[in-house]
# Entry
Amino acid sequence: MNKKNIISILILSLIILTSIQAQTKKSKAENNKVTKPKVTFIELGSVNCIPCKMMQPVMKNIEKRYGNQVKVIFYDVWTKEQRPYAEKYGIKLIPTQIFLDARGKEFFRHEGFYPEAEIDKLLQKKGMKPTKSEG
# Structure
């Protein structure tokens, strides 16, 4: 092999390696992105209150149907550890549902049992689309 061929092979190898490294960095960056929910649904209640217990399957269904678009959080405000959330959100009765946008700003609040169909309407008004159908 002459020097020109060796230099050409080295340059070509360098180009290929640089391209592979750039693609690997891009893939790692995409994999490390955390999908931030568009809406946070906070349920303030108790596992010992009947309307609150009725909200448990509703929360699970919303979480399943909307995937990572909606983050569902439950605080049992009758426990010592989670009681401060009742004060933080200024609730008057349980259950209370609070909906926050992606910036953490409250855009809707409901007191009492909140039917799943109504939550669906609210979320869809905010641009959410169910990722899984009911059933």
